[in-house]
Amino acid sequence: MKPFVKWAGGKRQILNDINGFIDDFVGEDKNYTYLEPFLGGGAVFFNRKPNKAIINDLNEDLINAYRVIKSDQYLNLVSLLQEHKEKYTNNPDEYYYDIRSLDRKTGEWPYAYNATERAARMIFLNKTCYNGLYRVNNSGQFNTPIGRYRNPLICDEENITEIHNYLSSPLNKISIMCGSYEKCIRKAKDGDVIYIDPPYDYEDDDGFTKYQMSGFTFDDFKNLKNECDKAINKGAFVIISNNATEKVIKLFEEDPKYKIYYGLTRINTLRTINSNGSERRTGKEVIFCGVNNNIPLPQANDMNKIISMIMSGENGISNPEEAKRVLNVDTTRQVAYYMSALLFFKYITHDKKFTELAKSIYQDRKKIEYDIFNQLFKNDLFRTVYENFDAADLEYISQQIKIHNTQNNTLSDSTIKRRSSTVKKWVEWMVQYNKKNNE
Questions:
Q1: Per-residue confidence (pLDDT) for residue 114, from 0 to 100
Q2: Among 41, 169, 361, 405, which has the minimal tally of Cβ within 10 Å of its Cβ?
């Protein structure tokens, strides 16, 4: 199963990277809902084939096609695409521009055409236009010129049938939305996964603004980041991919309150949107993985590993591979937990550089342990559990987590259980530390 349309910014080149991050965080849990608010061609969605998903795009033509394929009209869609294929083959240029001009007929479009006919037109144009580029003018009319293909695959009946069977299966729960990304992201719950692939930012303009008439600006990016923060604070895991521009990186790295940690990974890709093959060049993408650093502590509970990170050098840890080496771990998830722990203690900034506090103690293990103990003791949750340690089983700690949940989030039982175990480990360390230093 693969995307039924070509789409600018497709994720085939970085599928393995994205899937690796998702697998890292969900582990064996199959009960999460996958959300994708900027669906496009759905390369990641179709590759993962989640049992529960909420998919969304602002493009009405695109979402109409998804809905038709999911419906019992999918075979009629196949027939119409086969008809388009035959007529296009006989006279490509004339037929392409005739079909493209349908949305210029005032009073007829879209009212004179049913959903299946509109879906067939959309897929036909996508398969035969220049580079699969969906572009509209200021009047909302599709204006991409014809592409030069010898034998475009206009009707992939086998793939459409496979997609239909997946989307419509009673074993799956796939919700298809057409609207703002905000509405989609806000449906995320604790434990869910959100993959976000918004229009790309560029250093010299505001991104690919003609995908929709309204465009997508850097102010929209700031609002998107705010929505991501809210979802992460509800317990969702967020992955964002985009162009590795300086302002995008700065936006997601800066959080002086240390509440959200966005791990950053840079990846080289080949840009294929340019019409001149010689101008298609290697670009740099960035993937951000958002982790909640606010309630109550990331799932990092090995004091020796945390101390080893603090003592690794005066400037901190600059990249995930270095962190894996220092921690002796294999996964990005583990790195994110320990980096979040350093953020929690205010030992690093979001560019992974040591703060002045860390620089003042990084060469002295005793000072590090003393500072961590005092920071934990000043935290209401940890102090309460510490002072009632003899009665602090996991059930008691779970109740304290709910009481001290300052974000008023609805946390799943599995999340509370994980966090209870982490708190217990840290409080055990506090008790041992106090005993050792008062003997």
A1: 95
A2: 169
CATH of 69-154, one of 1.10.1020.10, 3.30.479.30, 3.40.50.2300, 3.40.640.10: 1.10.1020.10
For 315, the token pair is: 């400037």
Q: What does the alpha-carbon distance between residue 311 and residue 325 come to, in Å, rounded to a whole number?
A: 13
Pair 165, 1: CB distance under 8 Å: no
Cis omega (within 30 of 0) for bond into 298: no
Distance in angstroms (rounded) separating the CA atoms of residues 207 and 83: 36
Q: Which helix (H) or strand (E) holds 251?
A: helix 246-253
Candidates 175, 224, 219, 231; CA nearest to 197 is: 224
pLDDT digits (tens, 9 = 90+) for 79-107: 999 999 999 999 999 999 999 999 998 77
Q: Is the pLDDT of residue 58 over 80?
A: yes
Quickly list H helices, 42-180: 43-48, 60-70, 74-90, 92-100, 115-128, 157-168
**Fold of the 12-58+179-292 domain:** Rossmann fold (3.40.50)
DSSP letter for 396, please.
H
DSSP-based three-state secondary structure for 381 = helix
Largest Cα–Cα separation, the chain: 92
Using alpha carbons, select from 182, 175, 190 the residue that is nearest to residue 31: 190
The Cα 267–Cα 14 span in angstroms is 8
- Beta strand segments in 229-322, E: 237-243, 260-270, 282-292
Token pair 């003609």: residue? 210
User: Three-state SS for 427?
Assistant: helix
Would you say 376 and 430 are in contact if contact means Cβ atoms under 8 Å apart?
Answer: yes
- 98 with 220: CB under 8 angstroms? no
Domains of the chain by residue range: 12-58+179-292, 69-154, 303-436
φ and ψ at residue 400, rounded to 5 degrees = -65, -35
Span 159-207, pLDDT tens digits: 999 999 999 999 999 999 999 999 999 999 988 999 999 887 766 554 4
pLDDT of residue 351 exceeding 70: no
Interhelix angle for 157-168 vs 60-70, to 10°? 80
End-to-end Cα spacing for the chain: 65
**What is the C-alpha R_g of the chain?**
26
